[in-house]
Amino acid sequence: MPNSAAVDAALNAADANIETSLERLFDLLRIKSISTDPAFNAETRKAGEVLVEQLAALGFDSSLRDTPGHPMVVAHHEGPEGAPHVLFYGHYDVQPVDPIELWDTPPFEPHIAEVNGAKRVYARGSSDDKGQLLTFIEACRAWKDTAGSLPCRVTVFLEGEEESGSPSLYDFLEEAKDELKADIALVCDTSMWNADTPAITTTLRGMAAGEITIQAASRDLHSGHYGGAAANPIHVLTKIMADLHAEDGSVTLEGFYDGVEEVPEDVKRSWEALDFSTAEFLGEIGLSMPAGEANRSVLEQTWSRPTAEINGIDGGYTGDGFKTVIAAKASAKFSCRLVGTQDPQKVMAAMRKHIDERLPEDCTAEIAEYGMGPATQLPWDMPHLTAARQALTEEWGTETALIGSGGSIPVVGNFKRQLGMNSLLVGFALDSDAIHSPNEKYELKSYHKGIRSWVRILDALADVTG
Ligand code: BES
Ligand code: MN
Ligand code: MN
User: Which of 18, 47, 205, 226 could form a disulfide with 337 if both were Cys (CB 3.0 to 4.6 A apart)?
Assistant: First the structure.
């Protein structure tokens, strides 16, 4: 039974305690938990430790679990007899801060600024994902402070390697299967539809990422002495990468579109009803013209179509001034976003073939593989989704949107395949939060109403059976 007096009490506590909730967020944001850079290993661990302490103080049986990489946080809290068991997931690591010169204030000195009447928390990780994960923990606090208990049995599982490809995740989940398997996973690492409209994300793109290095001569060369005769690996690399796309924007890799299906009509209609403005979406980042596959809407391009993107390119002389050199090698980092049932291994094999077929005499190519994982499609008819949707709609006073996402959250696929568990993706980020970019921020409204939303969702999930 929904217990509205208890919900109201917990909501009031969330409101009354927002200042101390913010202090706890600031404490976490000051920790430089950049997981990809070994120089920050100790700080990354520290972020995990702080969260273990916060959860222990709330009455969770809470511990830090070592892995070959960064540690995992696992914390258990009992629930009422017969209530569902939910597994909350978030990540306490953050992206590197470069280019640091583009930050208006230091990335690990969180502060609040008011823009157009809305207060925002500026710091690396404020939105992705420290602010988001704390919305859930603070909601548990509101319940504990008022009811003295939680409406569901709750396990909190926090990762410190999400931003660096989750290298320890698979093995950890295999070992901790029995401990972590729950009725549903709750993931707070996605966006709202817009600043006033909450959303549940039902599709995520997968990924096949790597780095290709082309080697030609045995050393860097004088471009006058050897130019015209020596193979230039930058030319070879850029030609191979340029060949990844056809004139119409489609990807040329062999078999790339196997497993890519057209969006079903009912989903397409619901996306059309979402009132999306291409001009606004692109205008906000200084662009005007969709640049991907021809004859596809931007929502299709980012939610339901796969991509092959070059993320970084390196070779030759890139310092100040000028140097007449032919480099010995050149490299490019790439990532393909995957949809439907596209197979990351097959995409990687096709990439290898694409490169090998175009490799001239005297050149060699090496490919290093980074993150790999298929796309995720969650069912629209899960009772947990229906319950959470209703709770969100009550909190925000407007219908909850069911949306797709162009991003990837690898753990969602692991939960499904390794633990047989579906996920409910509820997040309060905005596209304008500049995640992974300079001047990342989280709206105070996202934080506050995010906490209130989880207070309601926890109550709503308590009634879901099966
Ligand atoms: N929270 C993001 C994923 C995301 C972004 C979801 C935008 C919804 C909207 C997550 O932390 C992330 O950055 N994922 C990486 C995964 C990669 C490092 C394997 C991504 O999508 O690039
Ligand atoms: Mn994230
Ligand atoms: Mn991220």
Answer: 205
Q: Among 93, 189, 414, which is best to mutate for testing ligand 1, by the most ligand atoms less than 8 A from CB?
A: 189
Instruction: Please indicate whether residue 163, judged by its CB atom, sits closer than 6 Å to ligand 1.
Output: yes
- Strands 72-77, 61-65: parallel, antiparallel or unpaired by DSSP? antiparallel
Return the residue whose CA atom lies nearest to atom 20 of ligand 1.
408
Predicted pLDDT at 123: 98
Q: Which residues pair with residue 442 across a beta bridge?
A: 121
Question: What backbone torsions phi and psi does residue 53 show, to the nearest 5 degrees?
Answer: -65, -45
Alpha carbon separation from 313 to 35, 76, 357 (Å, rounded): 22, 44, 21
Cβ neighbours of 317 (radius 10 Å) = 12
CA of 146 to the centre of ligand 3 (A): 33
Quick check: helix, strand or coil at residue 4? helix
How far, in Å, CA of 67 to CA of 161, rounded?
10
Q: Give the model confidence (pLDDT) of 246-267 as tens digits.
A: 999 999 999 999 999 998 888 8
Cα of 442 vs centre of ligand 3, distance in Å, is 14
pLDDT of residue 466: 66
Query: Which residues are within 8 A (CB) of 230 and not within 5 positions of it... i.e. 6 or more apart?
Result: 216, 217, 221, 326
Angle value at C-alpha 172, between 303 and 94, nearest 5 degrees: 55
Given its phi and psi angles, is residue 210 left (phi above 0), alpha (psi -120 to 50 degrees) or beta? beta
Residue 129 CA, ligand 3 centroid: distance in Å: 7
55, amino acid identity = L
**For position 84, what pLDDT does the model report?**
98
Q: How far is the CA of 407 from the centre of ligand 1 (A)?
A: 5
Centroid of ligand 2 to alpha carbon of 244 (angstroms): 28
Quick one: pLDDT at residue 268? 86
CA atoms of 69 and 395, how far apart (whole Å)? 39
Are 122 and 111 spatial neighbours (Cβ–Cβ below 8 Å)? yes
Q: Is 440 in the pocket of ligand 1 (CB under 6 A)?
A: no
Structural domains of the chain ordered from first start = 4-204+376-461 (3.40.630.10), 206-260+306-373 (3.30.70.360)
Ligand 1 atom 19, closest CA: 165
State residue 298's pLDDT score: 95
Residue spans of the chain under pLDDT 70? 1-2, 466
Which ligand is located closest to the Cα atom of residue 91?
A: 2
Give the DSSP letter of residue 124. Answer: T
The answer to whether the CB of 362 falls within 8 A of the CB of 236 is no
Q: Ligand nearest 90 Cα, by number?
A: 2
The pLDDT value recorded for residue 266 is 84
Asked whether the beta carbons of 120 and 442 are under 8 A apart, the reply is yes
